[in-house]
Amino acid sequence: MDFGGVGDLGAKNVLILSEHNDASNEQIKCSIDRLSALPDCLVIHILSFLGLEKAAITSVLGKRWRYLWAELPKLEFYFWENSGEETKKISDFVAWVHKTLATRKSKYLEKFTVRFPYQECFSSDVDNWLEFASKNKVKEVYFDLSATNDFYTLCDMMYSYPSLTSLSLSGCILNPERKIEWQSLTSLEISNVDLPQSVVEKVLSCCPVLNSLSLCDCWGFTCLEINSPNLCKLRVHDSDDDESENFLEIYAPYLKSLVLSLYPIERKLKLTNLSSLVSAHFSFAGYTWDPMYEDVLSNTKEIIENTQHVKELELGREPLRVCILKSMTF
């Protein structure tokens, strides 16, 4: 994929006018003229339904259209190459993101998404993008940098972001040395990274209106003590690598919904005070365990005993199979 010029993305693959059909050409010209008569705000709204990549193709329509696509209220950049992680292709993608942000005139941006195979040499670029998001008070930020073995360390400015409402980070190390100011954050997703217990505790204590928390393939923490009455939804997808801790306790008296995928070998589960829980879904991660292992039996028993009161209890295939094989009754 060519990410060369801001105004030229995909232009070589687009045929605006037919060389042989004058009637068709006139129809296309008339359609473009009618669109051109609309105010910028309405044209931008129409372009927003195309997505960033397709909207960028409209830059070939004329001078007015050259940079209009960059004003979309949601910017979503995805690196979709399947032919490896060649640094040159990634560099072109990074340059395209920079050019798009530099082209924008509007300061309003609702959502900012970047997904690409991160390498350490691009750390300053990611810093700049997140600085852009913070300065422009973007409400929703989604960064997936987990396709490689390099981890990005979240820059300091991201911890002071009062206007942020939704944050999703994959492959990003959280190491806050200052107070976290996420007063408006309602949704937080963290995945594919080491997440020490101290960081978990700091995050939970500094997000007063957090409603939904998702931790997927993270390791390093042993306890989720959730005392906020606002945090109603919790999703934990356990990591099955050797770095996972061997104990997980969840204490959440106000939690309404729990989705837990646990690696049941050498990982003891303790559920404490889930008195407000209404909906629960449990499954086991990984494939290298036997349903008759003591750890598996113990975890299954823990789940059943502590969720008997919920209105909606869903067991995945694996824990249900354990119950059937053992004919467990609690």
UniProtKB/TrEMBL annotation:
SUPFAM superfamilies assigned: F-box domain, RNI-like
Spans through the membrane: none
UniProt domain F-box/LRR-repeat protein 15/At3g58940/PEG3-like LRR: residue ranges: 126-261
InterPro entries, per the entry: F-box-like_dom_sf, F-box_AtFBL13-like, LRR_dom_sf, LRR_FXL15/At3g58940/PEG3-like
PANTHER family reported in the protein's UniProt record: F-BOX PROTEIN-LIKE, OS07G0242900 PROTEIN
Organism: Cuscuta epithymum
Protein name: F-box/LRR-repeat protein 15/At3g58940/PEG3-like LRR domain-containing protein
Pfam family, one: LRR_At5g56370
